[in-house]
Amino acid sequence: MRPSSHLLAPGFLSRSLDEIKRFAKIGMASISCWLSVAYTQESLRTATTPYHLLDFTNPVTANMCKTMSDADMGGFSKVSLDQIAATATEPAHIRFHGNISIELPPNRPQIQRTGYAAWRNKDRGPTIFGKSLWDVDPYLYLALRVKSDGRKYFVNVQTESIEYTDIHQHRLYAQRPGEWETLLISWSDFVRTNYGQVVEPQNEMMTQKVRTLGIGLTDRVPGPFDLCISSMWATNEVEDGDTHKTQG
Questions:
Q1: For position 13, what pLDDT does the model report?
Q2: Backbone angles phi, psi at 234, to 5 degrees
Q3: CA separation (Å) from 117 to 8, 41, 67, 80, 109?
Q4: Cα 126 from Cα 16, distance rounded (Å)
Q5: DSSP string of 141-200?
């Protein structure tokens, strides 16, 4: 029996190799933990090294993302997602920017609300282990390295949830607009929504099966926006002096 062509594709093999490397690191970390502390289930579930999810210092990562806005249904908001090279004062990053418009499209009376823009990573291809999903269950926080203009952004997380269209959201509370900073959001503080509305039941997020990460702007305030993101990762630690925990 010959393997199908998609199983031999470079992307498939690369993703599979990345997963094997990650599993190996987790295994070595667990062995180290077992040798240094008592053998408990909790110690094995506590990761000691960050888990990088979207690293925009690698220019390839930006190509794995897509933008969305009300322009997709005839609105007039503008959105771009640009890769910015590193400089002497800034890390390589993506720049999520554009202009929000709340103007309604003409001759489309069914469209009653506009004024949003967002981006997220595209659904990732399969590996030899099946569907590509992030398992962030061993981690307490989602960390983001950002430089914000101070507008009302939301971090969006999609999982293998009750409904495929569910999005778990949390406000991105910038502490120092205009400066680079690291923000930490507890995975347990995300709120389950569907089509912009909070829904019940508020089940615990399936952190073992995260499909996509992204950021959206839905404040409907007309005008320009500009948010820079260097990286997003899962962590258990407050890592430096400019790291801030955010509350729901």
A1: 56
A2: -95, 140
A3: 36, 42, 7, 9, 21
A4: 8
A5: EEEEEEEE-S--EEEEEEES-SSTTEEEEEE---SSTTSEEEEEEEGGG-EEEETTEE-S
| Beta partners for residue 116, in sequence order | none
CB 38 within 8 A of CB 17: no
Q: Are 103 and 114 in contact (CB under 8 A)?
A: yes
Residue with tokens 């040798």: 35
Q: How far is CA 213 from CA 30, 88, 89, 130, in A?
A: 27, 28, 27, 19
Question: How much is the pTM?
Answer: 0.81
In this predicted model, what pLDDT tens digit does every residue of 3-45 receive, in sequence order? 455 444 446 556 556 656 555 554 444 434 333 333 334 444 5
| pLDDT score recorded for residue 28 | 46
142 to 3, 102, 152, 223: CA distances (angstroms)? 37, 31, 18, 29
Single-letter residue type at 137: D
d(Cα 186, Cα 246) in Å, to the nearest integer?
8
Distance CA 91, CA 55 (A): 11
Residue 142 structure tokens: 């989602």
pLDDT tens digits, residue range 98-146? 999 999 999 899 999 999 999 999 998 887 877 899 999 999 999 999 9
d(CA 227, CA 33): 38
